[in-house]
Automatic annotation (TrEMBL):
It comes from the Bacteria. GO terms for molecular function: ATP binding; ATP hydrolysis activity. The lineage of its organism: Bacteria, Pseudomonadati, Bacteroidota, Chitinophagia, Chitinophagales. It comes from Deminuibacter soli. This is ABC transporter ATP-binding protein. SUPFAM superfamilies: P-loop containing nucleoside triphosphate hydrolases. Residues 11-246 form the ABC transporter domain.
Length: 264
């Protein structure tokens, strides 16, 4: 069992409510994401919000991104700073790419927004293109790429920009199995690379969400109440289901998947 400690608060969601007219969509959503200290390293977290279709995952993601105002409640970052639009890199299901720029141009533009990449923008973009298997299509326009390829460009774009928080809406859909493993590996590398880097994944793909995360929040309705809330927080580190490569072969992995299915 890995020794670890959760340290500073990176993000706090407090009493989030969302209502459209009389219809409650989200209620009493509270969670806290902290960075993690392990012997010799300090890292961010990978958190997944899992729930069935239509439960409110995308609405929650928009609230986290500052793109949707909650009816009540707040999102604060790094202790007490209110989150604002632009604090988080968002990778939506319908990838927003500039259709008039080649993917190389778009990625270079993203890299140039990141002060940490100053002087090595081009080589970093080339490296990402290679890691994500898109080197041969780097001069294509988005319209010439498949949905899965566009998604990878969208993920790269946000990674290159260097935001501390990355919100990913259904990142596993539209990827074939070979690319999926590669993308999961890269996302994990990102979270391990920086103490402040936090990935928040919204998904109904339980298997992949559990495989990549260290905490899972189950979004659902309970006790006949209207509006979705966090029914359960599952700490995958405590179950020894984080940070190693054979997670999916552990008996605790299939038990956790079954547990989540029952909760949805
Ligand atoms: N502008 C709106 N006005 C009224 N209701 C809305 C509006 N936008 C979303 N909703 C409702 O909010 C609920 C949650 O939608 P949301 O898109 O967050 O679901 P989801 O969990 O992301 O679903 P999926 O997995 O299918 O994408 C749905 O019942 C939807 O009808």
């Amino acid at each position: 069992m890995t020794v670890y400690q959760k340290k500073e608060v990176l993000l706090q969601a407090s009493n989030i409510q969302l209502q459209y007219g009389d219809a409650p969509i989200l209620r009493d959503i509270n969670f806290c994401i902290k960075n993690i200290v392990r012997p010799g390293m300090l890292q961010g977290q990978v958190v997944s919000l899992i729930g069935r279709s239509g439960i409110g995952k995308t609405q929650m993601l928009k609230i986290l991104a500052g793109l949707q105002q909650p009816s009540a409640g707040s999102i604060t970052l790094f202790g007490n700073r209110p989150a604002q639009a632009g604090d988080m890199g968002v990778i939506f299901q319908n990838y927003y790419l500039f259709y008039w720029r080649t993917i190389y141009q778009s990625l270079l533009l993203a890299a140039r927004q990141n002060p940490l990449l100053k002087g090595k923008e081009k080589e970093t973009v080339e490296q990402y293109l290679s890691n994500f298997g898109l080197l041969s299509v780097k001069h294509y326009y988005p319209g010439q790429l498949s949905g899965g390829q566009q998604q990878r460009v969208s993920i790269m774009q946000q990674l290159l920009k260097g935001a501390s928080f990355l919100l990913l809406d259904e990142p596993f859909s539209g990827l074939d199995v070979c690319v999926l493993d590669k993308v999961i590996e890269l996302l994990l590398q990102v979270s391990l690379s920086d103490e402040l880097k936090t990935l928040i994944i919204v998904s109904h793909d339980i298997q992949h969400a559990v495989a990549i995360s260290d905490t899972v929040y189950i979004l659902g309705t309970e006790n006949g109440q209207q509006g979705a809330t966090i029914k359960k927080e599952i700490d995958l580190i405590e179950r020894d289901l984080a940070w190693h490569s054979d997670i999916q072969r552990q008996p605790a992995f299939s038990d956790t998947i079954e547990e989540i299915k029952h909760l949805l």
